[in-house]
Design goal:
Blueprint lengths: L46 H8 L8 E6 L3 H12 L5 E4 L8 H4 L31 H14 L6 E2 L6 E5 L4 E6 L2 E10 L4 E4 L13 E4 L13 E5 L3 H13 L2 E5 L6 E2 L8 H9 L1 H24 L5 H19 L3 H7 L11 E2 L3 H4 L5 E4 L3 E4 L3 E4 L4 E3 L2 E4 L3 E3 L3 H6 L2 E2 L6 H7 L16 E3 L11 H22 L3 E4 L1 H16 L2 H4 L24 H10 L5 E6 L14 E3 L4
Parallel strand pairs: 1-2, 1-6, 2-3, 4-19, 6-20, 8-17, 9-10, 9-17, 10-13, 11-12
Antiparallel strand pairs: 4-5, 5-6, 7-18, 14-15, 15-16, 21-22, 22-23
This protein binds flavin-adenine dinucleotide.
Flavin-adenine dinucleotide binds next to helix 2 and strand 7.
Organism: Actinomadura montaniterrae
Pfam families: Pyr_redox_3 (PF13738)
Protein name: NAD(P)/FAD-dependent oxidoreductase
Length: 576
């Protein structure tokens, strides 16, 4: 088996040994306030951990599960816990509201770029989507509705950023540092999303600009760009949505492009009221539509990439068709069209859809600028050729730091067992995981979106699959009376190697992606973004993976409270 770095040498950093915690549970006196204790009617008694506490050697953490992040993943995970009868959990959210992506991205034109029928949970269909591609505000409304309907809000602690996660081997729980104080949790689920932080704008002079600077992910809805001269920097998926909207109202628009994006037609339309009524009355019909839409998205975003070797003509033919028909009908000026057309293969970078983006470049007053930016001046943007264009506002649509970026975990460190440090691991080793969820060295810790973790066509499939896996492990830990659960290195290496092998013949490896500048590629040159299996296989794996792929540490007091005779504080369970 090819080793991928989970030897003890990979965990050499110093492990902060912290004082043993007190047994206090979060309540009104806790710095994080009165988090409800068990709120689920179906929740079993907390006998296991209480007995552990009675042993006197292991303190009870503040909460059984802490979910970090209250976006789509955090809310979905919270619902899964509730449905499994695990009611003792908190959701820690750094912002002042829930909703993640759909709370932050409120720029003009924001919306899903997959059909909304696919962008919803299978257990919570929304018959009210107004369009095939729903606007962002409707997604936020959907998430708010879910949080209300499933009683998630009372578990959420807003304005609570987790700045550090530290595994406490003595107590067998996680210490989560937040500006409001420390919280201890037996299990941690990281639901911080794929696009964790906006990339810092490393454009010289940006701080000296005297006009308005807007970010796609932190839009100021009060800022009116009507009649203004505007520069948009970046041409990714957000820019594809923003640019046509700004062009409509700005006096002049300059779009600065480093890498062009493949943009296909958007088969969008309002969903007629009678159809919405039908969805409300016959959810089975809507469920059938959801399945078809989800499978369709999966075919485009996954099958095409993973199966490229078997049918390269699809991506090549698609690119040829786009170039010779679609781009021709959209962009009048041949030179502008040439510059808007990617030279890398279709699929190397996440493609987008729009019926207005490419056409925007036909408008008078809209310029596509492909010269490299030299710097921002107090009055505008200067390119490497020395040409300066004055503007009143600059819109930064320059992308995000992904969850695979070590920098994210340098800012908010994750320190596991025996000195394992996630940022160091991601820097020094190729990314790896078990089922896209767990990593050796991080006991009792799960990632909603880990390496090779993007399941299926839309995020909801990922959340439903991952949460099923996490719930299974927590339930098994409860059953065995284990206080620590850590995925074993061998199944992790086996699984990761399988994923890498499957990607070796993928479109990303073979379709001329070198110039794509795509977030699918990480800092090692790997493509650990998606899970190269079908969503159905991933869902099956979540239900059936061998539970002994995890090692369980059971305190020497059994769940029934019998003190064990051994002097050692804990033992690893043998396979059940
Ligand atoms: C503009 C845009 C459009 C998109 N469109 C689509 C689409 O059409 N289809 C699709 O499948 N995907 C799309 N995506 C991807 C989208 O991010 C996912 O679909 C999904 O919303 C991710 O949900 P999440 O909860 O995992 O992450 P997020 O929505 O990013 O939520 C993560 C949450 O964690 C919080 N958080 C992060 N770090 C901490 C911390 N240290 N402490 C406490 N809280 C923290 C954040 O504040 C945030 O609320 C889009 C993304 C963007 C940016």
């Amino acid at each position: 088996m090819r080793a991928i770095g989970f030897s003890s040498a990979a965990r050499k950093l110093t492990s902060p040994r912290l004082p043993a915690p007190g047994p206090a549970r979060i309540g009104p006196g806790h710095p994080l306030g009165g988090v409800p204790t068990d709120t689920s009617r179906r929740a079993p008694p907390r006998a296991i951990f209480d007995n552990v506490s009675n042993n006197g050697r292991f303190a009870v953490p503040d909460t059984e599960v802490a979910i970090i992040g209250a976006g789509l993943s955090g809310i979905g995970m919270a619902i899964a816990l509730q449905r499994a009868g695990i009611g003792d959990f908190v959701v820690l959210e750094r912002a002042g509201d829930i909703g993640g992506t759909w709370r932050d991205n409120v720029y003009p034109g924001v919306g899903v770029d997959v059909p909304a029928q696919a962008y919803q949970f299978s257990f919570a269909l929304n018959p009210r989507w107004s369009r095939v591609f729903a606007p962002g505000a409707e997604v936020k409304e959907y998430l708010d509705g879910l949080a209300d309907r499933y009683g998630v809000r009372r578990h959420v602690r807003l304005d609570t950023e987790v700045t550090e996660r530290i595994w406490d081997e003595g107590g067998r729980f996680w210490r989560l540092r937040t500006p409001a104080g420390e919280l201890t949790a037996r299990f941690v689920v990281s639901a911080i999303g794929a696009f964790v932080d906006p990339k810092p704008a490393d454009i010289p002079g940006i701080d000296d600009f005297t006009g308005t600077v807007l970010r796609s992910s932190a839009w100021d809805p009060g800022c009116d760009l009507t009649g203004k001269r505007v520069a948009v920097i970046g041409t990714g998926a957000s820019a594809v949505q923003i640019v046509p909207e700004i062009a409509r109202r700005a006096a002049r628009l300059d779009v600065y492009q480093r890498t062009p994006i493949w943009v296909g037609p958007k088969l969008d339309a309002p969903i007629p009221r009678p159809l919405r009524r039908l969805f409300r009355r016959a959810p089975r019909v809507q469920e059938a539509v959801r399945r078809i839409a989800t499978r369709g998205v999966e075919m485009v975003l996954i099958d095409l990439v993973v199966g490229h070797g078997r049918a390269p003509w699809i991506a090549h033919g698609g690119a040829r068709l786009a170039r010779s028909v679609w781009y021709r009908t959209q962009v009048r000026d041949p030179e502008t069209r040439r510059r808007l057309t990617p030279r890398y293969g279709l699929g190397c970078k996440r493609p987008s859809v729009s019926n207005t983006y490419l056409r925007t470049f036909n408008r008078p007053g809209v310029s596509l600028i492909t010269d490299a930016i030299d710097r921002v001046t107090p009055a505008g943007v200067r390119t490497a050729g020395g040409h300066e264009r004055e503007v009143d506002a600059i819109v930064l649509a320059t992308g995000f730091r992904l969850a695979s970026d070590p920098e994210v975990f340098r800012r908010t460190p994750v320190r596991g067992r025996d000195g394992f440090d996630l940022a160091t691991f991601y820097t020094e080793h190729r990314l790896a995981s078990y089922e896209g969820i767990s990593i050796p060295g991080l006991p009792n810790h799960f990632m909603m979106f880990g390496p090779y973790g993007w399941v299926g066509g839309t995020w909801h499939q990922l959340v439903e699959t991952t949460s099923a896996h996490v719930v299974r492990v927590i339930q098994e830990a409860r059953r065995r009376g284990a206080t620590a659960v850590e995925v074993r290195p061998e199944p992790t290496e086996r699984w990761t190697n399988r994923m890498r092998d499957r990607l070796a013949g993928s479109l990303w490896a073979t379709n001329g992606c070198a110039t794509a500048n795509s977030y699918y590629f990480d800092h090692h040159g790997d493509t650990p973004y998606l899970r190269p299996t079908s969503a159905a296989q991933a869902a099956r794996a979540a239900r059936t993976f061998p539970l002994d792929d995890y090692a369980y540490t059971v305190p020497e007091t059994t769940a029934l409270g019998d003190p064990a005779s051994s002097a050692s504080p804990a033992s690893e369970t043998r396979p059940a």
